[in-house]
Design goal:
By secondary structure, the protein is an alpha+beta fold. Helix content is about 20%, strand content about 30%. The chain is built from 6 helices and 13 strands. Strands 1, 2, 3, 4, 5, 6 and 7 form a 7-stranded mixed β-sheet that branches. The protein has a 3-stranded antiparallel β-sheet with strand order 8-9-12. Strand 8 and strand 9 form a beta hairpin. The protein is globular. It starts with a helix and ends in an 11-residue tail after the last strand. The relative contact order is 0.22.
């Protein structure tokens, strides 16, 4: 697990454990499920978003919807190199330079622009690389500041990127250099005991080419048959409300699991925000 994933897991674990305790995690969970209360909560979240300070902040921020690390455009030379990239077994030869660059500009096709902090190249390197003493590896031999494009909640944007030279490759591995905007505070509070057994949707991992389906990761416990994610759509938002299926009562370990779930939409996602019914927050992108 890379540094970003570890940090994200730590942030998500506490809310998911809270949802676990709320739902019961196998100890009478079935009786606590209420689809009506879940849908009611989803509607409350959808109704609270339009016109809120959170919606205004979201419409002006930089929120990526794709992996910030991009492999060489020339493709991998071998399956071993591809495995090394997927495992993040990437080492460096020598030291990377530091940078005095403080800000970079995110530019959208609409003409909008936003200034965002630029991370140090060493910090950028650590976000996609980790040391393993076994297996294939890739070697970084240098870095320079350049640019790339990335999908965001406001459409495709051109952003500054660190271009890492890989040993044996003519095109670089790119790492987006600017940091995302801080997520806004939700317009209503987190759901509690009246939520009908809701669980948190941890993150959005992908959107289909036509925008009519989403793939998300959602949590569940060790004594159930996995997550179920339903959707409530409005013109401004797509609210996901998650629960679990096949919950079994009785003693159960506190183990937390995550599964991928595909969610079908009636209309393409377009620029609608994806919200989590439990937290009332936008669902973050992450692999």
């Amino acid at each position: 697990m890379n540094t970003q994933a570890k940090r994200l897991t730590g942030l998500l674990l506490a809310p998911l454990l809270g949802a676990c305790l709320l739902a019961g995690c196998g100890d009478g969970l079935t009786s606590s499920q209420s689809p009506q209360r879940q849908e009611k909560r989803a509607r409350e979240v959808a109704d609270a978003w339009p016109g809120s300070a959170a919606a205004a902040a979201w419409s002006k921020g930089y929120y990526p919807m794709a992996d910030a690390t991009q492999p060489p455009e020339s493709g991998w030379h071998s399956d071993a190199d591809k495995r090394a990239y997927e495992a993040r077994t990437i080492v460096r030869r020598g030291k990377l330079p530091t940078t005095a660059i403080a800000q970079g500009t995110v530019k959208w096709k609409s003409g909008s622009a936003l200034s965002r902090p630029v991370m140090d190249p060493n910090w950028a390197y650590q976000s996609f690389a980790q040391f393993r003493d076994k297996g294939p590896r890739l070697t970084v031999t240098g870095v320079k500041l350049g640019g790339t494009t990335i999908s965001t909640t406001r459409g495709t944007a051109t952003v500054p990127a660190w271009l890492f030279t890989l040993d044996g490759y003519d095109t670089p591995l790119k790492q987006v250099a600017v940091t995302p905007s801080k997520p806004p505070e939700p317009p209503i509070g987190r759901a509690h005991g009246s939520a009908g057994g809701l669980w948190q949707v941890a993150r959005l991992t992908g959107t289909s080419a036509d925008g009519r389906s989403l793939t998300v990761r959602s949590g569940h416990g060790a004594c159930d048959d996995g997550p179920v994610v339903k959707v409530l759509e409005t013109n401004e938002s797509v609210v996901l409300y998650a629960s679990v299926k096949g919950a079994r009562s009785g003693p159960c370990s506190a183990e937390m699991l995550e599964d991928k779930v595909k969610v079908e939409l009636r209309q393409p996602l377009a620029h609608r925000v994806v919200l989590d019914a439990l937290t009332a927050q936008p669902v973050p992108y992450g692999t």
